[in-house]
Design goal:
Two copies of one chain form a homodimer. Chain A is α/β, with parallel strands linked by helices. In chain A, the strands form five sheets. Chain A has a four-stranded parallel sheet, with helices on both faces. In chain A, strands 5-6-7-8 form a four-stranded antiparallel sheet. In chain A, strand 9 (229-235), helix 7 (239-254) and strand 10 (259-265) form a beta-alpha-beta unit. Chain A has three domains: 19-265, Rossmann fold (3-Layer(aba) Sandwich), CATH 3.40.50; 308-419, Anticodon-binding domain of a subclass of class I aminoacyl-tRNA synthetases (Four Helix Bundle (Hemerythrin (Met), subunit A), Up-down Bundle); 429-479, no CATH class. Helices cover 48% and strands 15% of the residues of chain A. The longest helix of chain A has 25 residues, at 314-338. The A-B interface holds A 63, 92, 94-95, 98, 102, 115-121, 123-127, 130-131, 202-203, 224, 428, 430-431, 433-435, 437-438, 440-442, 444-445, 447-448, 450, 453, 456-457, 460-461, 464 and B 63, 92, 94-95, 98, 102, 115-121, 123-127, 130-131, 202-203, 224, 428, 430-431, 433-435, 437-438, 440-442, 444-445, 447-448, 450, 453, 456-457, 460-461, 464.
């Protein structure tokens, strides 16, 4: 079975066949860097990180572009998000952008989200946008009005094909900011005339101004990925108008198809409600990391399918922490035994177990990146591995390494749940040596028949999460 | 005594008076991101980080801009560094730029170099450069030839004022790539016509091309810092032609002074030779970090004055490691005693010691950021603190906190030698608890008169760098 992806444009799952065999060109709408990233960003970029990782796991050479919006993202009130942020923090807009871009990547890194190959900034592509807009005017799809330029949605017959909205619906049903200079309310800005107080401004054939939000994604995706490219992702809330406008801008002017697979992920909800500053349930990632290990948040996100909404609660996160702990315990149990295990071939029974685990995992991932099912397959595999460890036969170095390597690929490489340095967190270098010394001290105490002191050591270690196990061969330890 | 800075333009130390009282606008030439940063970059950006940090320490509100050169840096062979790198690594040029920008900041972070407030990319400022070039043509300082645009150095009488080179000298003495289309060999490119294979290209009034290296720094510094601004820094090797050309471009077109203080730092040498790939002595920071703690490299750099060259050898770095260790030991000795010290006022004798230490430190830093003398003042202070600790009188919580706070400001805030997380490295959280348990186990063994086992614990801890000290009040420990 090979990979199928739900294509929002076709409204169904389709076999994945890239434009160029062996290569995938993928674009995901990135953040507007005027504020800290919140849990919703966490969900979105984990969702697309998994797609990126799994495509690489399948052997595709992937180029992943995710933009940084540092100009042009206008609120319903008509205010520019970046300028609002700059005024709030009394910074130059580019200082604000620099600060929040850095913080964005810091948060993404903590979630073990791989960096995109290219992170183009909107302000870095003004000339390309000006050219594209000029072409839209020349081909009759855009018009200038009072120093701004608008896309004429009536000029593009397929407007609405992604979201399913027809123009008449949009007209009556959507809150559209009506500027008198527009021919129709749905026409959208490609270039906005800069008011005197607008610090971010560039010269253009239509006077000083700044680009609209939609045009940057069309221009930057095509610049780095060509036309058509394979996958365009983003939050479902961006399907209309943002992605609809991207398609119109691209296809109207080029006459070519823009994107082969449109992929939309569902929103993060907090106890059934959308996250909003006004509802008091707005949680930045930085705040979330104070309460939960980033890997627990990641695991929690992966326990639901990317297309669905995800309802967050503390109980659900605590449950995720326990689940992740179970998977990690298996891996740890395997790794701890590798050094001391005897050499020898991996038993056939284990090979079968691993092979069927991998197949179940891949089958789930091939089904539109179904991570909850893939995680279920991992739990099943983990139970099998624990049972194999318990029965005590054929536990050779080679066998343990085979298990380690598969878990590293599926849990680490694909799901991103084993960031570098995790080993150190689990068993710090110095800590390991100190624990060995404590075991030595405890057995010396037992030799002296000072059992009370020896037991106190054991109990206090247990409180620190270090469990001692006595056996005829000596004492070993595990960390909770 | 207030701050004096050596101004390369005036060829002397001058009192520092910013253009706008209380504010400093500072620009430093950043890296060309086509390769990993090497030890020479380490020296340069540590040198300027100290200037940034000390200006903030003095209470200035500093805006620090450091560019990222991602296009236009042409080698003597006429090849573009970014395109060479992209061909080498079979990447899109922007993937290359993304990769090495990220690695650059990773390395700088490890050296505890503060991020600049704005890191503008050259490719993000093409429109501004095109405008500036058009103005130079309009004012008669530049001319178009065969799709490229050159600055006419003969049109600017002060060309050479920074480097002291006069045109005739340059003509005969410098290796200048001679293009037939130039009027004089010293004329330099503002805009280069793109050959067909040049992937990074933009439209311009003179055809498709890309900007020269010099123009980006003029345009981006003025955009974010105004004209004139306070400090322009860079390596001494950039004084000519890069900075000379920056001045010409800025002052010829605006008629205004460009920069108030030009600051140049000296080069890093390896055993007396310049670092070059061809000499086999080229050391990337990533390689260096495998052998030396980044803080040791930082301390080593700070032990010499920024303007001088710095000769590197293993012995010198080992010496720096020992020196840094001595300063850290003092700080650690102070911090370890804070919790258990009795409350009470700080003795007057200590206040005097700290005050004179701070004054000596600031006097050195005020003398053109003389870090070697500032470090000597820290060693002197550290000896005084150790003597005070040894005499055992008036060691109150308040007194220890006063010492801690001063060292944190001078060693941490100004010199950047105490990165966050250093405490954890010195005394890991779990390790601390385990060591306490071991002390408990050892004393239980001694109660059982199992002295041999007890001593074995002590000796093995010592091997791990943990020294136990017994006293009538119990056992304490320190880390080597």
């Amino acid at each position: 079975m090979s990979l199928e992806i739900y294509n929002s444009l076709a409204r169904q799952k389709e076999p994945f066949e890239p434009v160029e065999p062996g290569r995938v060109h993928m674009y995901v709408c990135g953040p507007t860097v005027y504020n800290d990233a919140h849990l919703g960003h966490g969900k979105t970029y984990i969702n697309f990180d998994i797609i990126f990782r799994y495509l690489r796991y399948l052997g595709f050479k992937v180029r992943y572009v995710q933009n940084i919006t540092d100009v042009g993202h206008i609120l319903d009130t008509g205010e520019d998000r970046i300028l609002l942020g700059a005024a709030r923090e009394q910074m130059h807009p580019m200082e604000l952008v620099e600060t929040y871009t850095r913080r964005y990547f810091r948060d993404m890194d903590r979630l073990n989200i791989l960096r995109p190959d290219i992170s183009p900034r909107a302000t870095g592509h003004i000339p390309e946008m000006l050219e594209w807009i000029a072409n839209l005017i020349k081909t009759g799809h855009a018009y200038e009005a009072n120093g701004s330029v608008y896309f004429d949605v009536g000029s593009y017959a397929e407007y609405g094909k992604l979201s399913g909205r027809r123009l008449e619906q949009a007209q009556s049903g959507t809150r559209v900011q009506i500027a008198e200079e527009k021919r129709r309310p749905e026409d959208f800005a490609l270039w906005k005339k800069a008011e005197p107080e607008h610090i971010m401004r560039w010269n253009s054939p239509w006077g000083e101004g700044f680009p609209g939000w939609h045009i940057e994604c069309t221009v930057m995706s095509v610049k780095y990925l060509g036309l058509p490219f394979d996958i365009h992702g983003g939050g479902v809330e961006n399907k209309f108008p943002h992605h609809e406008c991207e398609i119109a801008q691209a296809e109207a002017v080029t006459g070519n198809s823009f994107v082969k697979y449109w992929v939309h992920n569902g929103m993060l909800m907090i106890r059934g409600e959308e996250m909003h500053k006004s509802l008091g349930n707005f949680i930045t990632l930085e705040e979330a990391f104070e309460r939960w290990d980033p890997m627990v948040i990641r695991f929690f996100v992966l326990q639901s399918h990317y297309r669905g909404p995800l309802d967050m609660s503390e109980e659900a996160l605590d449950g995720a922490a326990r689940g992740l702990q179970r998977l990690r315990s298996t891996l740890r149990a395997v790794r701890r035994r590798i050094q001391s295990a005897p050499p020898g071939e991996s038993p056939a029974e284990l090979t079968t177990l691993l092979e069927s685990g991998r197949e179940a995992f891949e089958a789930s991932m091939n089904d539109d990146f179904n991570t909850p099912n893939a995680i279920a397959a991992l739990f099943e595999l983990s139970r099998g591995i624990n049972a194999w460890l318990d029965q005590g036969q054929g536990i050779t170095q080679e066998a343990l390494e085979a298990v380690d390597s598969l878990l590293e690929r599926l849990m680490g490489e694909v799901l991103g749940l084993l960031p570098e340095g995790l080993e150190d967190e689990m068993e710090p270098g110095l800590g390991r040596e100190l624990i060995e010394l404590l075991i030595q001290a405890r057995s010396a105490l037992r030799e002296q028949r000072a059992f009370e002191a020896a037991d106190a050591i054991r109990d206090q270690l247990a409180e620190l999460g270090v469990q001692l196990q006595d056996s005829p061969e000596g004492t070993t330890w595990t960390m909770a």
